[in-house]
Amino acid sequence: MKALNIFFWLGVFISIVMSALFFFSWNNYKAVTLPEFDEKIGSYSIDNCTLTDNFLSIHGWAVSEQNPKNKVRIYAKKMNGDKWVKVNYTIQSRPDVSKFLGSHDDFDKSGFDGTIRNIKFLGGLSGVIAITITDTTGKVRGVSHECK
Q1: HSE-up of 66 (CA within 13 Å, CB side)?
Q2: N or C: which end of the chain has fewer CB within 10 A?
Q3: What is the pLDDT of residues 59-78, one digit of tens each?
Q4: In what order do the strands lie in the sheet with 43-51?
Q5: Cα distance between residue 96 and residue 85, in whole Å
Q6: What is the topology classification, in CATH, of domain 31-146?
Q7: What pLDDT is stored for residue 129 in this prediction?
Q8: Domain extents for the chain?
Q9: What are the C-alpha distances in Å from 28 to residues 80, 86, 141?
Q10: In this predicted model, what pLDDT tens digit does every residue of 2-42 receive, in sequence order?
């Protein structure tokens, strides 16, 4: 009977630890330093950027006209200090961007749709976002925006 009690409480403990691990792995709030911008992103649009008590969501597009394959990164500024967190996003098809830039289909995969939880007990988010594009030479282009 005593072994059964130990097994039960061990299962409860493991369940709590696993729940916490899943929460923090899904809601990555690791603070990072924002890279310095060498210059401003030339072509971008933020279609929607909203900060609520629970989430920050951003939808738009950004491209490096020199190389459409350069990786876009999105950051959200934490409420306190000068630290930022990376925003996970999905790539969205945006044929309108290729048309706007006068290209056949080079920029069709330039859209993004990202969301991050606004977790108050981990510092919360200020509503300021940054979008960066780093080219193959290491040059960082970026832009900041304040969400409403």
Answers
A1: 12
A2: N
A3: 999 988 777 778 889 999 99
A4: 43-51, 55-63, 111-117, 89-92
A5: 29
A6: Immunoglobulin-like (2.60.40)
A7: 95
A8: 1-30, 31-146
A9: 17, 8, 24
A10: 887 888 999 999 999 998 888 767 666 778 889 889 889 98
